Amino acid sequence: MSDRSNQLLLLLSQDEPTIEQALREPAQFEWLRAADELELTTIMLALKHAGQQVSGAKRRILDRVINLISVRLREDAEVPTEFAEDVSQLYQSWGSDSPLRHLLLQWLTLIGTVEALELFAELIASDPPTTTSAAAVGFVPLLQQHDYNSDALYPRLFDGLQHLSVAVLILDLSNYLFRTGRIDPHPAGGKSEPMIELLGGIIQRLGTLEEKRDETTPEELAGLRTQVSEGVALAVGLCDALASINEKKAIGKLYQAMELSHRQLRCEAAAALGRLGEEKGKEKLVELAQYPVSRLRVLNFAEELGCLDMIDPKFSSEEAKCEAELALWLSQDSQFGMPPQEIQLVDTRELLWPGFEEPQQCYLFHYAYHMPQGIFKSLGIVGPITHSFAVDLTPLSYEDAYAAYAGWQTEHQDIHESEPSQWEEAQKQMAENFQARLAAEEITLIQPVKLGYFFGDVRLVAVVKQANEPGTAIVDLRTITFIPGGQTNRPIGPNEAYHIHKGRELLLNFNPNTYGV
User: Is residue 295 pLDDT above 90, yes or no?
Assistant: First the structure.
């Protein structure tokens, strides 16, 4: 037993005040992120004997231990296989009010033995986490790893379909395992009637939400989107599963789903109908190819169903696929949560790009959202990366738009930054010298933002005004570069301006004869 694991076990045996004091010094537990196999075994034995009535400070310290060990296991450590049953019991004893017990489900799927997977399936079916995001932690290894016995999960895992918090995860995993040939037949076989009933209920609910959409206040909009997103995800999984088991009784519900406004669900329902032999499903897919946000999915389904030649070639070109990729990226919940009302290719060129050996075809798109508070527009890129900033890049030249993305993406040990709070005396003096240069040029300093280090050069990045125009100045020993924010409601800020500055140098260095021409 190591000294540090011994100290942890000793701490767990202390009284509440001593443990409370230890909780005020969280850094002392960070070693768990690098615990070795013997230490993990020792700690798991301690967790096994923690008891079911743990509360107060001891409970909080055990939660911290579980959290840090989970970080360790996600990296490269192995869970001792003999602890599968103990992990399952610990999950149950921690209770549904525990904020971290869902991490133990991941321990079971990381163990990956038949026993561990059977225990995982039992817990998901009988006592799942209360939220989908928490439950997803346990499912991730099942999608990433391929050396486990998938049959150990079924049929018990599918019984968890009655719990909405895990239903989508069960369907997505089962559909994935079936498509990749890991399980056959599909575990949904024999369970089609409750699935059809569930699909019908979701369709009705989504229809009601669509009717309420125009009456929704801005404050209610986020909640409505969450409900729609959750309903669509579950309906999509049901469509896929019902088609996979060739359930003709689902055709009526699939036609209803195909008439809803959400394009992802319409696309999935159309594909399911096509797989069930309904020609109208293929016809709907052809129609949906015109919408960028569903285009990539449509093309994949059309190829599967042998009707790719029915789609207009202008919707299957490389430019059309890139347009679809950006629309889909913008539609993610972490971005705008919906596709733009406008999207158009404005430039394409081949560039040598930082991080790539071969030239990259780059596509630049103008897009716009028409919102109650006004129009938001910008330029997004597809090619070496798919990305867009939350500021308006349309005032920029196309060369500078590419530069913004190259500067943002590039990582190198000789490219880094430091903020004023991190500056030492020498850096403060350097920043003051740069600020004096701004004053000499009659550029008004608003706020220094950071020092940027770029392959040996040092620059000050600062928010400024030049001739009463707000923007960003990048000052080095030779030059002052001013990048205006732009006359827009989402101006270019100092971070984006510095990305542009770095990207200009990078792209010019990589493309000395072509960039900027």
Answer: yes
